[in-house]
Amino acid sequence: MSEEQRIFDGLLFNPGHPDLKKIKLNAHKLSQKYSQTYEDEVEDREALLSELIGSRGERCFLQGPIFFHYGLHTEIGDHFFANYNLTVQDDAKVTIGNHTNFGPNVTIVTPVHPFIASERRQMLDQHGVPNTLCYAKPVEIGNDVWLSANVTVCGGVKIGDGCVIGAGSVVTQDIPAHSFAAGVPCKVIRPITELDSMRFNPKVLADCSVVDEE
To answer: Which residue, 86, 147, 196, 198, shows the most beta carbons closer than 10 Å to its own?
Structure first.
């Protein structure tokens, strides 16, 4: 079993393994190159994202700067928008749905380190060799989700479709679909309903209108 497969299986792995370091170094370089481009350098950015990210849909825009740890472990749907300073520590797989928006400084972290200090320093790997080991938990973010500014999503979390996560939240547990959740740790505040429609906020709606769904 490869060290990368151990990550996907939720087992302890050695982040310093040469095979993993090679993937990460490539992702770090591509992230840096992307972060040094201007947003109107569309072709250059598209080429870099094609190398960096495992898969992505149509009309994805990442403002930059960005940082991906592996890159290839991330899958992004259609019509995705990420504002400044997106960080994705995608040791385990990160899946992001369609029409999902991230505010500035969103961070997704999948690795988990042992709580016992001596175990963080060193354990014996599957070959009986002393190494620094950790494990990782995947993250799933659904369709039509809005993560506000400075949100951190921890490993093992699933955020359902249509959710809004309040600014500064640290999401440590699953959030059911169509919920407004916020806080540290992030908790569901209430469901999102039709009463949240801009139709009921006429001062802000002003001379705009809501598109009726068929």
So the answer is: 147
